[in-house]
TrEMBL record:
Keywords: Cell cycle, Cell division, Cell shape, Cell wall biogenesis/degradation, Cytoplasm, FAD, Flavoprotein, NADP, Oxidoreductase, Peptidoglycan synthesis. This is UDP-N-acetylenolpyruvoylglucosamine reductase. It is an enzyme of class 1 (oxidoreductase). The keyword Plastid does not apply. Pathway: Cell wall biogenesis; peptidoglycan biosynthesis. PROSITE patterns: FAD_PCMH. HAMAP family: MurB. Its main location: cytoplasm. It comes from Lactiplantibacillus paraplantarum. Pfam families: FAD_binding_4 (PF01565), MurB_C (PF02873). PANTHER family: UDP-N-ACETYLENOLPYRUVOYLGLUCOSAMINE REDUCTASE. It catalyses: UDP-N-acetyl-alpha-D-muramate + NADP(+) = UDP-N-acetyl-3-O-(1-carboxyvinyl)-alpha-D-glucosamine + NADPH + H(+).
Length: 302
């Protein structure tokens, strides 16, 4: 495959046997057979078509901020969309490509005096990933501001989904159900006062920095919020803050975060997740479901 894929796409940067720890926010993850960095929808479509024609497994990721890649890595072709990062504001809309950072998108909205995205000012992911999981913070979520999403289907067809078709729920969108690949998003916002928008963004970023262990590599919020409970409080009350497995630690600053304090592996993360789930269930009878997306293969034994 090496010669074929590289020869087929000379204009696209493609790396072989590339460690995904270079791209994940946890700084963990095994090697991908091939990693491609398309810069446009047309390049992405061509890569999808190639993978289908060659019967290659295909994985698409964005900023890898709420993602764990297992230590065995990913087979086939992995597409990282972070170079598809154009953002434009027009009238009361902001259109952002899937690989654009949510933080950068909120800054463009603020610069255009458009309000509605302030809640996302500190969310570390990409636009595509935020839509995939209906990311939210501080009382807001993507479902409240998204008008349409343009996707490539698994067969490489381009289509636009309206709000109803996205079937948003808590940390859910229809993108998860059909393996569509987000390529751009149109946000519907409102005219606002730029000074007030910036002040609100600054306020939320100050709160985030005070409460979250942003100085350490992590995958963000690991678990979904169980109905009737606060995840961080459950983990705190279970006495798990500061607990370490390998190089992974339950943050002393925010119990909902697992941080990489000493060259953690993805296996350390997985073991910690399972341990936290086990202890919280034993103590409180609550099963914590993961919010973080976990992909890839375990390390081959033998």
């Amino acid at each position: 495959m090496t010669k074929d894929v590289l020869a087929t796409f000379p204009a696209i940067e493609i790396k072989k046997d590339e460690s995904l720890s270079h791209y994940t926010n946890t700084k963990t993850g095994g090697p991908a057979d091939y990693v491609a960095f398309p810069k446009s929808i047309s390049e992405t479509k061509a890569l999808i078509t190639y993978a289908n024609d060659q019967h290659l497994p295909l994985t698409v990721i964005g900023n890898a901020s709420n993602l764990i890649v297992k230590d065995g890595g990913i087979r086939g072709l992995t597409i990282i969309l972070t170079r598809m990062n154009q953002i434009h504001a027009s009238e009361n809309k902001v259109v952002a490509e899937a690989g654009a950072a949510i933080i950068a998108t909120t800054k463009v909205a603020c610069g255009a005096s458009l309000t509605g995205l302030e809640f996302a000012a500190g969310i570390p992911g990409s636009v595509g990933g935020a839509i995939f999981m209906n990311a939210g913070a501080y009382g807001g979520e993507m479902s409240e501001v998204v008008e349409t999403v343009t996707v490539l289907t698994p067969t490489g067809q381009l289509k636009t989904l309206d709000h109803a078709e996205l079937d948003f729920g808590y940390r859910h969108s229809s993108i998860q159900d059909y393996d569509d690949i987000v390529v751009s998003v149109t946000f519907g916002l409102k005219a606002g006062n730029q000074t007030k928008i910036q002040a609100r963004m600054d306020e939320l970023n100050t709160l985030r920095a005070a409460k979250q262990p942003l100085e350490w590599p992590s995958c963000g919020s690991v678990f979904k919020r169980p109905t009737g409970y606060f995840t961080g409080k459950l983990i705190h009350d279970a006495g798990l803050q500061g607990h370490k497995i390998g190089g992974a630690e339950v943050s002393k600053k925010h119990a909902g975060f697992i941080i990489n304090v000493d060259h953690a592996t993805a296996t350390d993360y997985m073991d910690m997740i399972h341990y936290v789930q086990k202890v919280v269930f034993e103590r409180f009878g609550v099963h914590l479901q993961t919010e973080v997306r976990i992909i890839g293969e375990d390390v081959a034994q033998g």
